[in-house]
Structure formats: structure tokens, C-alpha cells
Amino acid sequence: MSSTIEPAMTEPSVKVETRRQPMPPRERLEAMFDVKDLDAIYGSKPAVKGVNMEIYKNLVTAIIGPSGCGKSTYLRCFNRMNDLIPGFRQEGVIRYQDTDISGSNIDPVAVRRNIGMVFQRPNPFPKSIYDNVAWGCRVLGMKDNMDERVERALTQAALFDEVKDRLKASGLSLSGGQQQRLCIARAIAVEPDVVLMDEPASALDPIATQAIEQLMHQLKSQYTFVIVTHNMQQAARVADMTAFFSISRGAEGERWGELVEYDATEKIFTAPGDKRTEDYVTGRFG
Ligand SMILES: Nc1ncnc2c1ncn2[C@@H]1O[C@H](COP(=O)(O)OP(=O)(O)OP(=O)(O)O)[C@@H](O)[C@H]1O
Ligand SMILES: [Mg+2]
Questions:
Q1: Ligand 1: which residue has its CA nearest to atom 1?
Q2: Residue extents of the structural domains in the chain
Q3: Distance CA 100, CA 118 (A)
């Protein structure tokens, strides 16, 4: 099904093709995450403050906003990747199904088992294509039917046909777009619930970008995707829901990111409720 989103605002207009299915009514959506009063802080400097939002199961949710507004920091809160940064702390609650995954009693490795991540730059390990995909399964002791698992993940990541004759070749011998799909295969091989993606297509050409967008579209019946993107067209093409973050400034000149508006993507791009969102999506920001 194809439709066109055309912002109601003034130029420069972003006319965007989307292949999204119409979203189910809100009351039928199931929350995968429920974020309450989340602050993410480096040392004494908050990167984001006071975030409240639900992220829905089996949808693609985009996070957009200007550089430095805390998108990557916020995304990393969902699988405890910020734990690796000295001086980082967070306050508030991130409920994942029925568990608050932000507490210090939670094992970050267990969280990452269910909530995988794909980074901006493809980062295959210096191992074979096969071993890259099998890696997470081996770490987690999922050792049965490994060939099947690897083939399934590569097929889901739309890479299998391109690599099936060279599974023993290094992951680093692939093109950038193939490497990114390999990283997606590695993330989904362990069958997570959620895949977080931080600007996954920013280093890719339009064809590789399209492959990754199609893949999200095809896989969202099995996974929940949360994607940070600077590309408005991409957000409009792939995301069901869009969250716009912006930078707030305090009296002393301090800056932090805050969630300005979160709604169906169509609404954010055609009839946003906040002037700051409108300025951003029409390119008048800054
Ligand atoms: N490891 C870190 N240590 C200290 N401060 C950090 C760290 N990472 C990010 N920050 C700060 O947190 C704020 C938010 O950064 P973040 O990378 O989350 O923004 P972003 O919205 O992803 O930006 P971009 O669009 O440029 O990727 C910035 O002020 C940044 O300087
Ligand atoms: Mg970032």
C-alpha cells in the first residue's frame, strides 16, 4: 500500500513516499516500553530530561531532532549501553514489558539479549560472515541448528543471496551496505524483541538505504524497531510513530534535550502541534 505525505506547512516542502500500512488504532497498540520521567546525565550535565513516552510493539518508532539533543543517549538507555560510559547515570523508569530495566539490579547483558542495537557505522567483527552472525548465539549458548539460524538471520536481513557462496569470507570484505545488513543479521540472529538503530543508513548509498528501510518494514511484524535518523524523508517513509526532541536552554546557559512532541508520523509531518516541531520538519530550524 502506498500513500503520500505532504506537509501542510510552507516550503521547503518535504514530499514523501511511504510504504507504511495504516497504523492500528491507538487503543489496540501494545506498549513495549513505558518511559517515565527519564533523565540521562553525564557527570553533572543532563543530556535529556523529563522524557515520558510509550514505545509500541511491532511498530517502527523514529527519533528525530537537532544534533546534540540527546537522541543517541536516549536510544542507548533502552539497552543499557550508556552503562559503559564513566560518569553516566539515569533517573526515572523504563518499563520493558513488566520490568524496570533502568534499575541497578538489572543485568545489562540480559537486557541486551532482548534489545539489540545497530550502530551508525557498520562494525562487523574481523571474523567470517558466518561467525559474525553466529557470534551472539554462541555467547548466549544458543548452539543448536546454527546453520539454520545463520541462514535465517541473513535471509531476514536481505543478505543471504549475496553471500551464500562465501560465508567463510571475512565480514570486512563486504561493501558498506552489506556490512550494515550483516550487523542487522547479527542483531536479529539471537531473536531479540527490539532492534535499536542509531542512524543506520547515514553512511550508505540510496540503494543500501532502501534495502534497510524495506527490511524494517518487512520485519516489524516480528520485531519492534526504534530508529534515530537525521533524514526526514527516511523517518516519514519508515516510521509509524515519530518523536521530536529539541534542545532547551536554562537561565545559566545550560542545555539539555527534551521530548517536544510524539505522535503518529503523519501528524508530526503534516500537522504538528508545536511550533518547534513545525520549524524543524520544514527545515526552518536554527
Ligand atoms: N560519552 C559522553 N560523555 C559526556 N557527554 C556526552 C557523551 N556522549 C554525549 N554527550 C553529550 O550529551 C549530549 C547529547 O549527545 P547525543 O550524542 O546523545 O546527541 P545526538 O542527538 O545523538 O546528536 P547527533 O545528532 O549529533 O548524533 C551532547 O551535549 C553531548 O555532548
Ligand atoms: Mg547521535
A1: 85
A2: 3-281
A3: 23
